[in-house]
Specification:
Length: about 325
Amino acid sequence: MKLTKKITFLLVLCFSIHGLQAQEGIPIYSDYLTDNYYLIHPSMAGVANCNKIRLTGRQQWFGQENAPSLQTLSINGRIGDSQSGIGAIAFNDKNGYHSQTGAYLTYAHHLMFSRNTIDLNMLSFGLSAGMMQYKLDETAFVEFDPIIAGIEQSATDFNVDFGFSYHLINFYAHATIKNLLKNEGVNINEQGVSYDNLTTYLFSAGNVFSKFGSDWSFEPSILYAYKDATKESFIDANFKAYRDFDFGSIYAGVSYRRSFDGAEFIDGNTISSQKLQYFTPLLGIEYNNFMFAYTYSYQANSIVLGNGGYHQLTLGFNFGCRKEKYDCNCPSVN
């Protein structure tokens, strides 16, 4: 029994250390598809004709102790009638014995290239600066190994994100560099476990299609992410359908995430590998100035930690709305 506990402890410690090195601020899930692109692209602060508040809650693997969970609160909007926008994000992310909390402040500027405000042609730049506190709770490890300090280790980090967005009528593209600063030599425990490169590159693009006079519109999009330190990358292929009503709109869609990197595991007497795959259906409704969205992610791999899925809720409120300026099907702007 003692040997089993020690093996379990070593596995948990290894995963905790790996998770520490991989932490990067707000994790990149599929919540950006629920009218929440500002969470991953600072250039989207104040891009819409309304100021927006978004609250999200995510829970993974119900029934699993210390399963990952995430909560975010964001607000962004224009500064009066200027071409500048501001925003703020607070988040709390927990994964096993490791957790991180933080906050970002954002400034964005939007340049119009249209001859008038009817035809949307806009280039936006955004910069976010944030403080994050990383924690590793070792209080549960004292029973197994006296080398472990047995306290809650912590470290504080400052970093910045920079990106731009381009909107041309119904088309959009975003590019962002997250965690631009290296922050070399930051340690979180006495064993010297450190992180010195959390830079992640994001690129996303999409287009909204609809027929003239129709209440229906359709939005295919993609997102590509690359982590510089671990050379990991993945792609999201997304599709959403919108239906307009007098009170607002309803949308539904699906996202498929595929990692380009595999993990090896022992399958009987052979060594097999698998690449991370997620299917995420989503459903949302906008009623007047309120919005509600739900996403459920299912991991489509043969080897998984648990059969439970990944549930996420998003609540939102729009305020200070101005008249829609642009003659386009561009949900993130109009």
